[in-house]
Amino acid sequence: MLLLLLMCHVVTLAPMSGDSSVEFLAVRYRYGWDAASYSSFTMYKTVVGFIANFLSIGILSEFLQLSDAVIGIISCLSLAASSILAGLATSATWAYIAPIASLLSGSVMAVSRTLIFKIISENETGKINSFIGSLESLTPLIVVPVYTHVYSMFFETFAGCYNLLSAGMMIIPTAVNIWIYQDMNSKTD
């Protein structure tokens, strides 16, 4: 299970690295934005992400008291919805609407770490933390060339294709979180 959770952590991190590597090229091509327009958009997405962290943790965890696996499922689906909207956006207005769909995704990285640390012994925490840090450093080295290749292949016909790749990546952590949820429930029955 540890390897699955580590893979999920990397897969949820991958779209963040990949999207940012080609996003400026995409919005410049699709909407005619310059660096200043993209900078404003990036700031907007950062604020939405900040709000998403508080909403997802506050509402899903504290108020609704959902399990980590359920929060992981909701977070992954929220990220996937946002990526699909961004990929299919036909105007700058829709580009600004797409991040709102990710409001419940703020805890996606925290959930994977929480689940990892729940299954390891306390004396393994340092080793796993350092291994996760290494994986997080390696992820862009693998993902950025993939996203760059996908974008360069499709930008003239479908510039949002890389967003659909991001949405598709969320299938893996969603499936793992569903499996964990079912496993936890079968043990309580």
Automatic annotation (TrEMBL):
Residues 1-18 form the signal peptide. One of its GO terms (cellular component) is membrane. The chain crosses the membrane at residues 42-60, 69-88, 94-116, 128-150, 162-181. This is Solute carrier family 40 protein. One of its GO terms (molecular function) is transmembrane transporter activity. It is a multi-pass membrane protein. It is found in: Membrane. Keywords: Membrane, Signal, Transmembrane, Transmembrane helix. The keyword Transmembrane applies.
